[in-house]
Amino acid sequence: MPSTFQPVRGMRDLIGEEAKAFTNIITTARKTADLYGFREVITPHVEPLELLSAKSGEEIRQRMFIFKDLGERQVALRPEFTASVARLVTTVLKNEPKPLRLFSVGTVYRYDEPQKGRYREFWQSNFELMGSNKPEADAEIVLLTNSMVASLGLQGFAFKVGHIGVIRGVLSQEGMDEKTQNAVFQRMDKKEYGEALKLVESEKCRAMLKGLLEIKGKDWKETVEQIKSHVGGYEKAQIAAENLFEILNLITQSPDITVTVDPAFARGLEYYTGMIFEIYIPELEIALGGGGRYDRLIEVFGGEPTPAVGCAHGIDRVAIALQEQKATLNGKNGKSVAVIPITDALKSEALKIAQQLRAAGISVEFEVMGRKMAKALEDADKRKEDYAVIVGERELKESAVMLKDLTNRQQCIVPLAQLVEKIKS
Ligand code: HAM
Questions:
Q1: Residue 12, domain member (yes or no)
Q2: Is the CB of residue 212 less than 8 Å from the CB of residue 227?
Q3: CA gyration radius for the chain?
């Protein structure tokens, strides 16, 4: 009698070409991790329910595969990687120097309604950068997503960006408690804006939020300017809008990035505190990846307060995107370099240089901690980087940088036009 066994609803077998497509995407994700200085961690598929449900949000809590193990422990299949990585940072990795750049890849589980691009078992490549509250850390996460998607050969992709702190700033100042705020975000995530507004009791606050959601500028700068002026008088919201501006200003130094700012953008996960983003291609309505800043999760897990930002890419969806665009893969390889601006004012120039090196296949850890040169160099040494690229005003005026060879301690001034060649030689 033929077997009638099928995979569990929402779960799939990947065979031959399809499995190969997944492996290729995972290889590119790993190369991106290398290129941006992320270390891989492998964590269990099953975690304590309490860990996975803290701060993940109602949406995910209701869609977890939960069970009791034979020892009567309440456990669940991981619905994402962030909680597991945060657990590591509060335990075995707690004494490691910050920033920590951690990469994971594997399957995650959510009881979503199965349809094209939506499964109950799916794959993610996940990146978490922990220990920096600076906009350059947010920029790194967006830029690595851009690099990964570009090196997969996808075309026409664009980022949707927002900032949870803007709306939280307004709602908090108007006295709304966090739980109601989270409920507002859940509705917004589902694009149920009318329902979201119904949860706002005060007339003044509702009008304020409605106005914010309706802002549309001709480009990201104009949109952020409009947001800033709309939230005048709401101090935290203004700081958040300024932070969004700084992040976007850094990201858009990269010539090959497309961003739009959406003030009505919210994400289903509850832990976000700052910039949030998703990446799309024109052929698909579903996001290929998403992430954002979450500065309070690690302390909820009992760790030291540790600012963090991260993202995950849906590999199943990336495979669909590649199929839609019939794109081919072209992974890259490289050496490792720390790029360090001497002063804060030089960070966007320095980031531009970091991006040029990465585009040439050189692995770069960009300085995201705002540290003094000596400290940053000491750290680059510990991390066994091959070179430090020191971006200073004097050299930059001559279109050059200081290149320090960290193995023989020698340094010399190198014109930007020859930097890639010099590092690779
Ligand atoms: P997320 O937006 O829930 O974020 O998921 C990331 C990506 O996983 C989505 O953009 C999508 O491509 C894919 N995805 C989500 N649900 C499904 C599904 N049912 N079937 C197939 N693909 C799916 C997170 O998971 C956060 N942990 C990201 C993060 C890391 N934020 C900070 N650090």
A1: no
A2: yes
A3: 22
pLDDT at 330: 40
Q: DSSP 3-state assignment of 334? A: coil
Pocket-testing residue among 80, 81, 105, 316, ligand 1, by greatest number of atoms within 8 A of Cβ: 80
Residue nearest to atom 29 of ligand 1 (CA): 311
- Pocket probe mutation, ligand 1, options 14, 25, 112, 122, max atoms within 8 Å of Cβ: 122
The answer to the question of residue 157 being in a domain is yes
> What are the beta bridge partners of residue 46?
77
User: Each residue of 402-421: pLDDT tens digit?
Assistant: 999 999 999 999 999 999 99
Atom of ligand 1 nearest to the CA of 267: 2
| Ligand 1 contact via 280 beta carbon (within 6 Å) | no
Q: Is the CB of 310 under 6 A from ligand 1?
A: yes
What are the beta bridge partners of residue 401?
A: 414
Q: How many other C-beta atoms lie within 10 A of the C-beta of residue 143?
A: 23
Is 378 in the same domain as 312? no
Q: How many domains is the chain partitioned into structurally?
A: 2
- Give me ligand 1 centre to Cα 34, in Å: 21
SS (H, E, C) 13-54: CCCCHHHHHHHHHHHHHHHHHHHCCCEECCCCCEEEHHHHHC
- Residue 197 belongs to a domain: yes
* Residues 322-333: tens digit of each pLDDT: 999 986 554 334
User: Can you give the residue range of the structural domain that contains 93?
Assistant: 17-324
243's CB contacts (< 8 A; 6+ apart) are 135, 163, 165, 274, 275
* 395 and 316 in a common domain: no
Q: What's the gap in Å between 69 CA and the centre of ligand 1?
A: 26
- For residue 281, what pLDDT band results from cuts at 50, 70 and 90? very high
Q: How far is the CA of 314 from the centre of ligand 1 (A)?
A: 6
Strands 259-261 and 158-163: parallel
What are the start-end ranges of the E strands in 333-419? 336-341, 363-366, 387-391, 400-405, 411-415
Residues 345 and 304 in one domain: no
Q: Which structure tokens are listed for 281?
A: 């291609």
Q: Ligand 1 pocket, 312 CB below 6 A? A: yes
Measured by CA distance, the residue closest to atom 10 of ligand 1 is 289
DSSP 3-state assignment of 306? coil
Q: What is the pTM of this model?
A: 0.87
Q: Which atom of ligand 1 is nearest to the CA of 119?
A: 20
